[in-house]
Amino acid sequence: MNAATPRRVEHQLTDKGYVPVYTTAVVEQPWARYTPTDHEVWATLFARQREVLVGRASEEFLRTQAAMGMTPDRIPRFDDLNRQLRRATGWELVGVEGLLPELTFFDHLAHRRFPVTWWIRRPEQLDYLSEPDLFHDLFGHVPLLMNPVFADYMQHYGLGGVKAHGIGPAALVNLTRLYWYTVEFGLIRENGGLRIYGSGIVSSKSESIHCLESAAPNRIGFDLERIMRTRYRIDTYQKTYFVIDSYEQLIEATAPDFAPIYARLARQDSIPAGAVLDTDTVYQRGSGEGWLEDGDV
Ligand code: HBI
Ligand code: FE
Hints:
There is one protein chain. By secondary structure, the chain is an alpha/beta fold. It has a single domain, classed as Aromatic amino acid hydroxylase (Phenylalanine Hydroxylase). It is built from 12 helices and 10 strands. The strands form 3 sheets. The protein has a 5-stranded mixed beta sheet with strand order 7-6-9-8-10. A 3-stranded mixed beta sheet has the order 3-4-5. A hairpin with a 2-residue loop joins β1 and β2 (about 15-20). α4 packs across α6 (about 150-165), α6 (about 150-165) packs antiparallel against α7 and α6 packs parallel to α11. The protein is globular, with a radius of gyration of 18 Å. It starts with 8 loop residues before the first strand and ends in a 13-residue tail after the last strand. The model has no long low-confidence stretch (mean pLDDT about 95). Its EC number is 1.14.16.1.
């Protein structure tokens, strides 16, 4: 049994069919209405992920998550986390119904507000969910907002997103790819190895293992414009993971004005999700085992 309130969802017909677009309203976290099942889902996912992430996740991710007091006991209160976040980097969490229109999402990030879905998945959805729920957002995205460099990157991303929205759809596609291959599915070099910092990976047990240990995917050094040209996967493991040397590299790479970059990219083809270029810094050239031919976005 899930927390009571039905989620207000409209479905919009797009080229990808009917996609849920939630109301843009900010909602209070209905903490008192979470059921024992909701807390159990949180506890199960939290314990399972913390176990699989030791030695696999970025030290900074594990450190910040522990520092802000996230535990498996129960779903954290946004108010408690906000006290820590405001003090550390000036960020705050706002409750939302789910996926937001892009401009609304960018505007939140531009003002150091991270939108967190207030509801958590059901027990039968433990292993896969097609949209971000509370576990993905809170466990996956929030800890690194305690890190000042990553916190700045996320705000810069939001400011860039608002600008890109004004430039046009091609710029938005380029920028969404950057978010996808860093914030959601990024790897970082640490202690002589590769570690995970992407939220889409840390909230998934199987991908936490796959992205580092499978022979299938490419692992390629971060290159801003290369990433902004590269298509990605929504419904399967990534074919390619990009590796940063440090969180500072994200800030340095995104400091310049993007307008000339968008103009240059507009004259270049997109790169297929599984491609490896001669100019790439290759940590692993993937075997491609299990890749589906179609479906890159
Ligand atoms: N809305 N709530 C929410 N969370 C996201 O991560 C999110 C979103 N809307 C759009 C979006 N992400 C992506 O398209 C970003 O690349 C903008
Ligand atoms: Fe996410």
